[in-house]
Design a protein that fits this description.
Mean pLDDT: 95
Shape: globular
Structural class: alpha+beta
Radius of gyration: 14 Å
Strand order of the largest sheet: 3-2-1-6-5-4
Largest sheet: 6 strands, antiparallel
Length: about 150
C-alpha cells in the first residue's frame, strides 16, 4: 500500500481540526502516516528541546534514538540546515546514526510553526532502499505546513 497524499491530507485535517497542542498533533501525524504506507517502517518526530539538540517525540515503530545533536546524523542535518534530507542509502550518508539496523533509506523534513521557528523534524525510515522520492517530499511538506504552519 502506498500513501494517497490527497486523501491522507483530508483525513489528517479532520482529525486535527481545532487542536493546537504540538505533541498531540505530532502523535496524530505519526500514527496516521505510519499506517498509510508499507514503505514507512518508522515514523516519528524529534523535537527541538534545547539549542542544537533534538529529543525523541511521538513515534510509531521500534525504539528510536533518545537524543540527537544537530551535528550528527540525517535528523541533525535537517535541523541544522533547515532542508529536507532525502537519503536513498543510509549507509552512504556520512555520520548516519543507526537507531535501527533495519533502516535502508530515510526522509527527514523540518517542522516549522507559522512564524518559521523550527519545532522538530519529521523522520520516516524505510527498510527498503531508495524508498522515497520528490512526491513524498511534496506530500509530506504540504501536510506539515497545513498542521504546524498555521
Amino acid at each position: 500500500m502506498r500513501i494517497d497524499y490527497a486523501e491522507r491530507t483530508k483525513a489528517i485535517a479532520a482529525l486535527v481540526a481545532g487542536e493546537t497542542d504540538e505533541v498531540a498533533l505530532m502523535a496524530t501525524l505519526a500514527c496516521e502516516l505510519y499506517h498509510a504506507d508499507d514503505r514507512f517502517d518508522w515514523t516519528g518526530f524529534y523535537r527541538v528541546v534545547a539549542p542544537e539538540l533534538l529529543k525523541i517525540g511521538p513515534y510509531q515503530g521500534g525504539h528510536g534514538c533518545l537524543t540527537i545533536p544537530f551535528s550528527r546524523g540525517v535528523c541533525g542535518a535537517c535541523a541544522r540546515t533547515g532542508e529536507v534530507q532525502l537519503v536513498p542509502d543510509v549507509d552512504a550518508f556520512p555520520g548516519h546514526i543507526a537507531c535501527a539496523s533495519s533502516t535502508r533509506s530515510e526522509i527527514v523534513l523540518p517542522v516549522r510553526d507559522g512564524n518559521g521557528r523550527l519545532l522538530a523534524v519529521l523522520d520516516i525510515d524505510s527498510d527498503q532502499p531508495d524508498a522515497f522520492d520528490v512526491a513524498d517530499v511534496a506530500g509530506l511538506t504540504a501536510i506539515l505546513t497545513m498542521v504546524f504552519g498555521r
